[in-house]
Design a protein that fits this description.
The chain contains two helices and four strands; from the N terminus they run H-E-E-E-E-H. It is globular.
Length: about 80
């Protein structure tokens, strides 16, 4: 799978790196308007997780940040 501009941005997590001391990036699963979704190993809890990271260019725009937060709230409410 080829990745596009956001995932290739050096300000985004790269495969093999660890994010916030907890999530080891395994691969890019997909990319959209908000950012990139990665497959990651959760080093604290064990197991694999999907980790979505907001595009650095969007993170300074409050409307995108609020939409991202809203998406997180919706996903957390799913069982």
């Amino acid at each position: 799978m080829s990745t596009s501009i956001i995932a290739n941005n050096l300000r985004m997590p790269q495969v093999g790196t660890t994010v916030v001391g907890r999530y080891e990036i395994v691969k890019v699963l997909g990319e959209g308007g908000f950012g990139v979704v990665y497959l990651a190993n959760d080093l604290d809890a064990g197991g694999k997780v999907a980790l979505k990271v907001l595009d650095p260019e969007k993170s300074s725009q409050e409307d995108f940040v609020e939409r991202f937060r809203q998406e997180v709230r919706v996903i957390r409410s799913l069982s």
